[in-house]
Write a structure and sequence with these properties.
This protein is an all-alpha fold and 207 residues long. The chain is 33% helix and 2% strand. It contains eight helices and two strands. The chain has a two-stranded antiparallel sheet with strand order 1-2. The longest helix is centred in the middle third of the chain and has 14 residues.
Length: 207
């Protein structure tokens, strides 16, 4: 009786990107993860006329990262700015900066573009007046000092929703909050026990 020959079996280890199907075919589709963002891809608050302002978004984003807004701006945004706007060390502390980044000029476009790259979002340019008024002259479009509506803040706090600054309140011609029909205050009014939140909104004015 002759000895039966055993067939030679060979094995090949496929790379993770190649998926072997039952029919013996292969697919080169790679299971890749989406690109990671430098900063949290936090969604902005509000929509339509109640869209959040860009300064408000920066403050909430900094709070999410547990850092002061100024630190977030200096470490993440300023290094990516053009030389013409980032050369001055005191640039970020100027009140006019907080106004301009909410407007419809080149500074607002630059900041929103940088934040969109850092967060991997595509909707942050809606947080500036560029989307609202286009290329209209920016002179006195925005308030020099931010305004708050205490009735809206009290309502949002009671509902447990995020408290933010709508871009609408930044527009100089808006003298009455269309939701509460109250005249917005130029300074926030919070109870003493909310001191931490009060300081947070004071920072928002001079991001």
């Amino acid at each position: 009786m002759s000895r039966q020959e055993r067939p030679i079996v060979t094995a090949r280890i496929l790379p993770p990107s190649v998926v072997v199907q039952r029919e013996g075919q292969t697919s080169l589709e790679k299971k890749t993860l989406p690109p990671r963002s430098r900063l949290y891809g936090m969604a902005p608050c509000g929509e339509g006329i109640w869209s959040e302002s860009l300064t408000s978004y920066i403050n909430r984003l900094a709070r999410l990262h547990s850092v002061p807004p100024q630190h977030l701006v200096v470490r993440e945004i300023v290094p990516q700015m053009s030389q013409s706007t980032s050369h001055c060390p005191l640039f970020i502390s100027q009140r006019s900066t907080g106004v301009s980044i909410n407007g419809n000029g080149p500074l607002a476009r630059e900041w929103s573009d940088i934040l969109e790259r850092l967060t991997k979002r595509t909707d942050l340019h809606f947080l500036t007046l560029q989307w609202w008024v286009g290329d209209l002259p920016s002179h006195k479009l925005l308030r020099e000092k931010p305004a708050w509506c205490p009735a809206c803040y009290a309502e949002w706090k009671g509902q447990g929703v995020p408290i933010y600054e709508p871009l609408l309140w930044r527009i100089s011609t808006v003298t009455i909050c269309p939701l509460s029909m109250m005249i917005p205050f130029s300074k926030p009014r919070f109870p003493q026990r909310g001191g931490g939140r009060q300081r947070w909104y004071q920072e928002l004015a001079c991001v």
